[in-house]
């Protein structure tokens, strides 16, 4: 041992002996009573009740108090086979005045989907399925006539309709020419209103959470991947059970989520903000937005030329032709052949499990001044614009409307912001010249419809976050500045730097803007001091 090692061992002698004792397995332990005395595990009901209450596991608490998971309901599912049964179903639903409705279709894009069937439920355990493709048909005059018979049930303002993700079903109805009144209750939106992002809000998850019910998986009916079929190709009796289960589960969820809205004191939010938003989003998606496909074709040619030029320059600088899209090969060329880390003064390049880190953030941060990296990042930006937007957007154009109808979700983001998908129209680039060119492809009305004279109108709240802060904080100076219509950042600068408002220059205003928004999102006194030149003590006071 070296003197230093000896010294450490001697100084930590007691800990070493204790460690040896702790890791030694004692085999001579008397077992009295023995293994046979260990019984079946039994939960401590009182401790579990306290735990479930503290964590707000309401369904588990209900199971504990009721002695276990709920017993499966007896199912009374009815597949409508003729007009007589259809009329009986309508009478029952009209008598209930409120019911759940769900649609089975041929597509995830509601405005392009054909109706395969509709299911209804107004009572736990009981549901109806109306097939549009039955043989013999429910209505001898065909599916269109059947939909016309059901339209009063879907549109009567004296009836209340509930649904899970109602926006989809209402868009399906709209695509078939049925303009249904706004839904009375959306179970997905209600779940989000109460629980936010703390859990999933799809029907399968909610059924499992509240009723310990494992619903029939969709892919069990239609498959997945290249072998996937549509609901129209699944036997009617199979779809019927699935569809009735959807509608009946939705109805049961209405019954349990309504009281939870009251318990969470969220009913006002649900009824005055979240539910009124559903028909607004439905109309937005129904209207869609037009794109100038000719402009996109021209942009695609320009991007292809620019990509080729950037790729050629990368090959020229590398001294070889290689696949710039392969991260493994790229890492070898950049770091083993060209040694860009030496040019950038980086001693140890970042590595991943498969090789060198070549993600955009790493390359930009450490090697942004190296020309081959600049050309590579240029190629990547062009490639993303071309594949993600210029080539992809035309594929989303609805052939019947000539417009893109993306999907907006009000239950995806924890903050309550909208999320957009299929495609994401909230993520169109704007910072670069090419991104701005891409935005020009979005046009008001037309071009297929030939409508002219329309413009885009952009509207934004004036300093909404700071106005909310002025209201919540009760800060008199902030409120006065807003009331008098003054420049809020200049007013803040005057307070921070203790100068007359007329003496505030651009630099002061810029710093005050950083402070105004920084304070909203948790900026501390050290950062305030660093941004303004105040002392930490002054920043803390402010």
3D structure, described in words:
It is built from 24 helices and twelve strands. By secondary structure, the chain is of the alpha/beta class. The strands form four sheets. Strands 1-4-3-2-5-6 form a six-stranded mixed beta sheet, with helices on both faces. The protein has a two-stranded antiparallel ribbon with strand order 7-12. Helix 8 (187-195) runs parallel beside helix 11. The radius of gyration is 32 Å and the shape is globular.
Low-confidence stretches: none
Number of helices: 24
Q: What's the overall geometry? A: globular
Task: Characterize the biggest β-sheet.
Answer: 6 strands, mixed
Q: What's the total number of strands?
A: 12
User: Which percent range describes the beta-strand content?
Assistant: 5-15%
SS content category: alpha/beta
Q: What strand line-up does the widest sheet have?
A: 1-4-3-2-5-6
Q: In angstroms, what is the radius of gyration? A: 32 Å
The level of helicity is: 40-55%
Mean pLDDT: 90
Cα distance spanning the termini: 59 Å
């Amino acid at each position: 041992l070296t003197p230093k090692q000896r010294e450490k061992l001697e100084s930590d002698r007691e800990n070493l002996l204790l460690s040896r004792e702790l890791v030694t397995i004692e085999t001579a332990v008397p077992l009295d009573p023995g293994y046979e005395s260990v019984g079946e595990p039994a939960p401590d009901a009182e401790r579990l009740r306290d735990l479930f209450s503290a964590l707000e596991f309401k369904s588990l608490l209900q199971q504990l108090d009721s002695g276990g998971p709920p017993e499966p309901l007896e199912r009374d599912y009815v597949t409508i086979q003729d007009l007589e049964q259809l009329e009986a179903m309508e009478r029952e639903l009209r008598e209930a005045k409120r019911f759940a409705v769900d649609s089975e279709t041929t597509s995830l894009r509601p405005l392009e989907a054909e109706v395969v069937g509709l299911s209804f439920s107004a009572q736990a355990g009981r549901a109806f399925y109306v097939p549009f493709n039955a043989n013999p048909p429910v209505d001898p005059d065909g599916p269109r006539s059947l939909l016309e018979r059901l339209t009063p049930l879907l549109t009567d303002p004296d009836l209340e309709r509930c649904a899970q993700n109602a926006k989809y079903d209402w868009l399906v109805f709209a695509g078939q020419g049925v303009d249904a009144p706004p839904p009375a209750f959306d179970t997905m939106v209600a779940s989000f209103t109460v629980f936010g992002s703390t859990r999933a809000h799809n029907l399968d998850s909610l059924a499992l959470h509240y009723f310990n019910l494992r619903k029939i998986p969709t892919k069990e009916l239609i498959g997945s991947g290249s072998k996937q079929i549509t609901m129209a190709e699944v036997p009617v009796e199979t779809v019927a059970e699935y569809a009735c289960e959807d509608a009946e589960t939705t109805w049961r969820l209405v019954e349990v989520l309504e009281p939870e809205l009251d318990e969470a004191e969220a009913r006002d939010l649900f009824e005055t903000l979240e539910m009124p938003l559903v028909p607004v989003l439905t109309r937005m998606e129904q209207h869609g937005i037009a794109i100038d496909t000719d402009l996109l074709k021209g942009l695609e040619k320009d991007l292809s030329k620019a990509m080729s030029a950037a790729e050629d320059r990368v090959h020229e600088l590398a001294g070889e032709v290689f696949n710039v899209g392969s991260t493994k090969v790229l890492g070898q060329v950049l770091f083993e052949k060209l040694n860009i880390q030496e040019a950038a003064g980086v001693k140890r390049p970042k590595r991943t499990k498969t090789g060198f880190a070549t993600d955009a953030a790493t390359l930009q941060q450490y090697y942004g001044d190296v020309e081959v990296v600049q050309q590579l990042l240029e190629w990547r930006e062009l490639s993303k614009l071309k594949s993600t937007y210029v080539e992809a957007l035309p594929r989303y154009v609805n052939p019947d409307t000539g417009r893109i109808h993306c999907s907006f979700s009000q239950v995806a983001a924890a903050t309550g912001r909208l999320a957009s998908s299929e495609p994401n129209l909230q993520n169109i680039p704007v910072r670069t010249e090419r991104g701005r060119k891409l935005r020009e492809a979005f046009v008001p009305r037309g071009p297929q419809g030939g409508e002219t004279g329309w413009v885009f109108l952009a509207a934004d709240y004036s300093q909404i976050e700071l106005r909310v802060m002025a209201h919540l904080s009760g800060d008199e100076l902030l409120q006065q500045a807003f009331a008098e219509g003054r420049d809020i950042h200049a007013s803040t600068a005057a307070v921070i730097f203790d100068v007359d408002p007329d003496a505030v220059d651009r630099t002061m205003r810029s710093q005050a803007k950083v402070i105004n928004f920084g304070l909203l999102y948790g900026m501390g006194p050290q950062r305030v001091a660093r941004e303004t030149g105040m002392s930490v003590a002054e920043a803390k006071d402010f």
